[in-house]
């Protein structure tokens, strides 16, 4: 698909990124040539079919070139998160058995090269010059520019590849804590591209332009923000970052955006905050536009005076909102985590087509998505996409079957067999279909936290680190659908008694949890754990409980597992207050 589409596009722009304050465009022909060169370079370095090659880079045009180049060499791409610690990188490199890697530059090399050296990687191709020359920490470094020049004009032989072959390993957290490599086939990604096309074709697809914002190591952006745009010969512009998102949208004027709920929550918050600061007639007109738009979407009666005013609000409010988004936006797609209904309706009321979808890494990831126009049911995640079967098991679990289902977890046949049974992917989510065949997610069968950024986080892993600290006996981490993680921690009674004796204070736990010095001692333990966690895993805020989790108070099972629902029932309001 990549080589066919780029040949058809020729000198048209395919990719673009800001460099030295200016948008630098990469044509399809340039991307095609560089990708062929990287594939040939990997072959010259001894890479064979099925070898795993890690990829660590910020979002930039070279990301696509590297990813497809690895696949074109017959190897398997293993994207890494830029937020990974040294230990995180080492786990993925060892687990995947990566033979080599492609790395962007010095900023990410600091955490990556120590892991690469310890894992014994054969080579690292660096897009930018690294300090230390052609060998850093015992790792052989190859120059990306030199390799592209040396192998210029090369095109790979793709005849031996099959749709069912594994194209990439996308690592995602499992219930055991350690991330698992999800084997996605070429066919799984192509199936997702077809499903997305049939969904969005009603918008009148032409020469589309995407503004890519999410990490490309995330399965959602990997498919929806990279391969799907490629499949329809769209342009992909890479956002400079959250702080530049609004400016980039006005500059780039995208037609489609795919993002996670957290982004839309941030956009909503900034718009509302700006309005309140402005106040006066502008705020009143804006909120009136939202109110009327919401009534229209929900089918509520609209007074005659509001109907007359609505046309004026189109010009005074909705047109200005459209201009802030670049003026050409056809749809914003939300996925990766549940979208708050009020956030979705807010944008719909302002005339922005907000489509909520659903998926998981194990399905490449798109399973379902809402349809545009009058069939958009934002409380649901829409009907299944093309060539995808979805059914509800007797216990309410959502099951999925089709080419989009993963080939399995890398090196974990038992866990694969537990997740894919008779061809049906067991999602771990509970759901139901409405009268129109739209899927609604009603609960989570598994404990994995999906934050509002769409990141999968294992709470058990973090809880394990917390309870290793001498100050902490028990912990529960939470943050599903939230922008960051919070925790409830129970102090260790022995530590508390020793601390109280040394400080000359009463030793009862109820009194100590109110003592500022004692709270600081427990907070120091949380801070120590945070230093060894990735950014998304860190505990931003916590509360301290004086009562341990026990079988007697129903907060622990007989097998000594914590009962999350029971703990939330007792401490839910306190935990929720940490987000205010």
Summary keywords:
single chain; 580 residues; alpha/beta; Rossmann fold; GMP Synthetase, Chain A, domain 3; 3 domains; six-stranded mixed beta sheet; five-stranded antiparallel beta sheet; 19 helices; 23% strand; globular
Rg from alpha-carbon coordinates: 25 Å
CATH top level assignment of the largest domain: Alpha Beta
**Can you count the beta strands?**
27
Low-pLDDT ranges: none
The CATH architecture category of the largest domain equals 3-Layer(aba) Sandwich
Strand content bin? 15-25%
Biggest sheet, open or closed, and with what strands and sense? 6 strands, mixed
Can you tell me the number of structural domains?
3
Helix content: 40-55%
Helical/strand content category: alpha/beta
Question: What best-fitting shape do the alpha-carbon axes yield?
Answer: globular
CATH topology of the largest domain: Rossmann fold
The average pLDDT score comes to 93
Query: How large is the count of helical segments?
Result: 19
Strand order of the largest sheet: 4-3-5-6-8-7
Distance between the termini: 47 Å
Assign the CATH superfamily of the largest domain: ANL, N-terminal domain
């Amino acid at each position: 698909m990549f080589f066919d589409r780029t040949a058809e596009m020729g000198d048209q722009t395919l990719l673009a990124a800001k460099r030295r304050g200016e948008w630098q465009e990469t044509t399809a022909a340039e991307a095609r040539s560089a990708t062929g060169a990287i594939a040939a370079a990997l072959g010259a370095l001894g890479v064979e079919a099925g070898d795993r090659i890690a990829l660590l880079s910020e979002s930039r045009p070279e990301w696509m070139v590297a990813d497809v180049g690895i696949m074109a060499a017959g190897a398997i791409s293993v994207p890494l998160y830029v937020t990974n610690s040294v230990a995180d990188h080492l786990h993925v490199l060892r687990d995947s058995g990566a033979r080599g890697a492609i790395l962007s530059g010095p900023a990410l090399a600091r955490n990556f090269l120590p892991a690469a050296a310890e894992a014994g990687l054969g080579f690292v191709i660096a897009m930018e010059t690294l300090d230390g020359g052609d060998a850093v920490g015992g790792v052989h470094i190859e120059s990306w520019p030199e390799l592209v020049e040396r192998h210029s004009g090369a095109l790979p032989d793709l005849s031996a590849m099959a749709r069912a072959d594994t194209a990439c390993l996308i690592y995602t957290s499992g219930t055991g804590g350690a991330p698992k490599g999800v084997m996605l086939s070429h066919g799984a990604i192509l199936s997702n591209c077809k499903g997305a096309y049939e969904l969005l074709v009603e918008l009148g697809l032409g020469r589309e332009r995407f503004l890519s914002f999410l990490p490309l190591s995330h399965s959602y952006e990997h498919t929806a923000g990279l391969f799907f745009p490629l499949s329809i010969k769209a342009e992909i512009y890479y956002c400079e970052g959250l702080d530049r998102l609004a400016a980039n949208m006005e500059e780039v004027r995208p037609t489609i955006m795919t993002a996670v709920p957290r982004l839309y929550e941030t956009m909503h918050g900034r718009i509302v905050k700006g309005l309140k600061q402005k106040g006066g007639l502008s705020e009143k007109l804006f909120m009136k536009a939202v109110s009327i738009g919401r009534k229209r979407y929900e089918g509520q009666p609209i007074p005659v005076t509001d109907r007359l005013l609505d046309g004026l609000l189109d010009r005074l409010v909705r047109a200005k909102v459209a201009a802030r988004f670049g003026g050409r936006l056809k749809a914003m797609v939300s996925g990766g985590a549940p979208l708050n209904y009020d956030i979705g309706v807010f944008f719909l009321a302002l005339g922005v087509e907000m489509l909520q979808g659903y998926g998981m890494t194990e399905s490449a990831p798109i399973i379902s998505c809402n349809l545009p126009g009058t069939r958009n049911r934002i409380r649901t995640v829409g009907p299944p996409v093309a060539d995808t079967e979805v059914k509800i098991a007797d216990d309410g679990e959502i099951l999925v079957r089709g080419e989009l289902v993963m080939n399995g977890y890398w090196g974990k046949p038992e866990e694969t067999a537990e997740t894919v049974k008779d061809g049906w992917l067991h999602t771990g989510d509970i759901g139901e279909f409405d009268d129109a065949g739209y899927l609604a997610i009603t609960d989570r069968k598994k404990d994995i936290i999906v934050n509002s950024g769409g990141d999968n986080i294992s709470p058990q892993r973090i809880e394990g680190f917390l309870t290793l600290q001498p100050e902490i006996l028990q912990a529960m981490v939470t943050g599903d659908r939230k922008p960051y993680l919070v925790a409830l921690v129970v102090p260790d009674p022995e530590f508390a008694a020793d601390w109280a004796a040394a400080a000359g204070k009463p030793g009862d736990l109820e009194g100590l949890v109110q003592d500022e010095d004692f709270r600081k001692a427990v907070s120091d333990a949380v801070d120590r754990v945070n230093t060894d966690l990735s950014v998304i895993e860190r505990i931003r805020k916590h509360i301290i409980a004086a009562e341990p989790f026990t079988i007697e108070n129903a907060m622990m099972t007989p097998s000594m597992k914590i009962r999350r629902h029971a703990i939330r029932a007792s401490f839910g309001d306190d935990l929720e207050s940490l987000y205010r």
